[in-house]
Amino acid sequence: MYRTGILFYSLFVRVASPFNSKASLFVKGRRNWQKKLAQKIENNARYLWFHCASLGEFEQGRPLIEAVKQQYPEYRILLTFFSPSGYEIRKNYELADIVMYLPLDTNRNARKFIRLVQPEKAFFIKYEYWHFFIGELKKQNIPLYIVSAIFRENQRFFKKDNWSKWYRKMLFHCSHFFVQDERSGELLQSIGLNNFTVSGDTRFDRVATIAHSAKEIPVVEKFKGKQPLLVAGSTWKPDEELLAEFINNHPELKVVFAPHEVTSANMNRLEQLLKNPHIRFSKAGENEIDRFQVLIIDSVGLLSSLYQYGTLAYIGGGFGVGIHNILEAATFGLPVIFGPNYERFKEAVELKKLGGAMPVNNFSELEHTLNDFLSKSGRLEGASDVCKNYVEKNVGSTNLILKKVFNK
């Protein structure tokens, strides 16, 4: 069943590739992978293999990669991605010696890939479990570490049907799990696995680093002036429609939009929602920028630095499959607001309980929440302190992992 599923997935992506840009990148990126990898591998070099599903997982693995490069420079880094949205943005990541797509998970691909690389250790970030690659690592006695793992009761690993029992076997091939919370450890224990450490989430180390190295953006500083600023990060259409309704009736609030999609069509759609003065970042200069209410970021790579200028943040995705990274805003002490689909995100659940985050289901709730934050300075300051302290208390996962893996 697993082999058949991989085969059908491969066929589906190939059929879709002429009509879908992501599918096209998925197919082209894996073409002649063996030849490309063989050309890049250095003979007698010592490799560590880091695998991430996409960009979010890369940000979780990044602190570990950077710490390894600093403390263990004798190793070369191989970084693989499953998704084009991760690879295409990070294919030139300077701290990785080789960046490539993970070949599809077949017995043949796994065997050839691992024999070519011969990594001394492998690190899979958070969610990725590929049967043949994990099995081949086990066969060749290469330790596999799962980093920032998080488990839930409804996952396939913990069900009792035969398919789940087969799927669960992959976990027994992993050398060690670095899990985010106690509950994940309890679930592993429930199936007879005790090789785990509750190490927290490496993303806290990443966002703490970002906060200390955020780049200055003078245009945004001039745009904000002395008014409150809402930073709307990684927003989608449902988020933007709610926010636009509020913005159009509250000219006193400055807003920076950093949409998830920065295509021209999406920028045009967003601009049509806004009735008050707005300008795109690519057209903005420091002169007279303060007369606009809304600044639209039409490029990538600025969001994490934008939060330093914010008063509070709205994080997109909550009206879709799930919210984007809220920790990048929280580390700057910004209270965070997001849509209703946040329950799978541990940090969102915890910050809500602590009072640093507020989910909203509709415009009425959004309006009430924004007015509450903006009209009550004590409420805003309290939520800001909660967010900042939450990040500070959770840093340190990377060092814990390094000590365990390298026996230092």
TrEMBL record:
<dbReference type="GO" id="GO:0005886">
    <property type="term" value="C:plasma membrane"/>
</dbReference>
<comment type="function">
    <text>Involved in lipopolysaccharide (LPS) biosynthesis. Catalyzes the transfer of 3-deoxy-D-manno-octulosonate (Kdo) residue(s) from CMP-Kdo to lipid IV(A), the tetraacyldisaccharide-1,4'-bisphosphate precursor of lipid A.</text>
</comment>
<dbReference type="InterPro" id="IPR039901">
    <property type="entry name" value="Kdotransferase"/>
</dbReference>
<dbReference type="GO" id="GO:0009245">
    <property type="term" value="P:lipid A biosynthetic process"/>
</dbReference>
<dbReference type="GO" id="GO:0043842">
    <property type="term" value="F:Kdo transferase activity"/>
</dbReference>
<dbReference type="GO" id="GO:0009244">
    <property type="term" value="P:lipopolysaccharide core region biosynthetic process"/>
</dbReference>
<comment type="similarity">
    <text>Belongs to the glycosyltransferase group 1 family.</text>
</comment>
<keyword id="KW-0808">Transferase</keyword>
<dbReference type="InterPro" id="IPR038107">
    <property type="entry name" value="Glycos_transf_N_sf"/>
</dbReference>
<feature type="active site" description="Proton acceptor">
    <location>
        <position position="57"/>
    </location>
</feature>
<dbReference type="Pfam" id="PF04413">
    <property type="entry name" value="Glycos_transf_N"/>
</dbReference>
<keyword id="KW-1003">Cell membrane</keyword>
<feature type="domain" description="3-deoxy-D-manno-octulosonic-acid transferase N-terminal">
    <location>
        <begin position="32"/>
        <end position="205"/>
    </location>
</feature>
<keyword id="KW-0448">Lipopolysaccharide biosynthesis</keyword>
<comment type="pathway">
    <text>Bacterial outer membrane biogenesis; LPS core biosynthesis.</text>
</comment>
<dbReference type="InterPro" id="IPR007507">
    <property type="entry name" value="Glycos_transf_N"/>
</dbReference>
<keyword id="KW-0472">Membrane</keyword>
<protein>
    <recommendedName>
        <fullName>3-deoxy-D-manno-octulosonic acid transferase</fullName>
        <ecNumber>2.4.99.12</ecNumber>
    </recommendedName>
</protein>
